[in-house]
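Sequence of 2-isopropylmalate synthase (Paenibacillus hodogayensis).
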Amino acid sequence: MKKIKIFDTTLRDGEQSPGATLQPEQKIVLARQLAKLGVDVLEPGFPISSPGDFSAVQQISRDLNGSGVEIVGFARAVTQDIDAAVKATADAELRRLHIFISSSQILLEHQLRKSREQVIQIARDMVAYGKRFVDRIEFSPMDASRAGEEFLFELIEAVIAEGATVINIPDTLGYALPEEYGRLFRRVREQVRGGDSVEYSTHCHNDLGMAVANSLAAVQAGATQVEVTVNGVGERAGNCSLEELVMAIETRKQTLGVETSIDIGHIYETSRMMSRHMHFPIAYNKPVVGRNAFQHESGIHQDGMLKNRNTFEIMEPEKMGIPRNMIILGKHSGRHAIKHRVVDELGISMTEEQLEQLFVDFKKTADELKRVTDDQLIQLVGKTVNRPLERFSLVEVQVVVSSLKHRVASVTVRDHETGRESSYSEIAEGSIEALIRCIKRAMPFDLEFVDLELQSMSHGEQANAEAAVEIAVGERFFQGSAIDRDVVVAVARACMGACNQAVRDGGVAEAKEDGYEKRKSSGQG
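Predicted 3D structure, token representation.
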């Protein structure tokens, strides 16, 4: 199959998304992860924009030597930008210079304030200048999808004549429709002199939600490189999403006749890492990596999934490193799904009479909360069978908050295996930080607090808060979620749920009794 290069611009165009700024050290960490993911080309920043960006591009150029990743220096069509880009990427084993200039009439008039003739001359001069330092030059006529074909063709001919080796035809405003965008690539390849001597790239924004569709249309029209960002971050509505584009190709590659070099097993890890470093949340309904992407609440869908996963899924989440959690219990769930979760997955034995009573209680809870977490389900099961089912339970949570002082949290935890009840107190700058420190001390095993998502379940003063927590115990990860009227209590219960999951799934090596006693006694009070 034809190989499609993945050009990642998360650290350049993606970082231009409001609120997504990265520190140079973060860019270096993320660049390593992108190389691990298998991207072919990496645009790690805009060297002229700041000393920090210059330093990050320079360090990444050195750091990724031997990785096979081509490093791109991004520059406006001005000599100072080109000099900075060339200098920042000087140590890269494989490198490219990426020069851009506006091409649509509205940008020429109101942003660049240049005539078409002036733009063509500038493009010629700057590509020729860049060619003195770098063999591989990519040229991007910004807003190409809104530029007239006649001028666009003339501009592209000019830069090819000066030595440009990659022509990117960007849909900068996400304006194009797939059919017309694909047609534009075909006409450039057919009509432009020298058009058959260069590579073609596509760079699409998502303003009308068609970035992936437009990119695929370009691929079908001859583009061999797609410019993407992780999680689709970028200016306004973002860029073409790496994970969506790659999985569309992976899922339909027999039809498309193309493939990529991306190791899809690292997609979820990369997505979560990027989200955390950018402090940019992932929408629940985000394709591929969103929380709901492989979850099912409808009773009809759940029944089909339990019989055969292919009934309502076209991808396997495990192949992308996504934890399997397909059944979400809510008011639309049926008896079959609840029995499967309790008996088959949690391993709790119940009689048919008890299951029927559980289903009645479950429906009442689901009507009130919309979604029933494992923590709440196990509590309902415990009431039905009249015994505690989890190793640990929260007896009490208290937090003292002051805007002028540190927050103080205290928790009381009951260990149902030993029958002991212990209390812990901690001080920290934040309420949740103090709370997690308490829970860490309460557990007879070491854990790392990895991630937290908070969501309001409704509007108004009486809204329930949903907390989703991820912890790491050794090299294994465990999730817990909880819903409560109070945010802090929801986090505490979610964290406790994750700890109990670690115990339930055999993911912890219990501490020795003397260490356990020492930890408990130090926390009494």
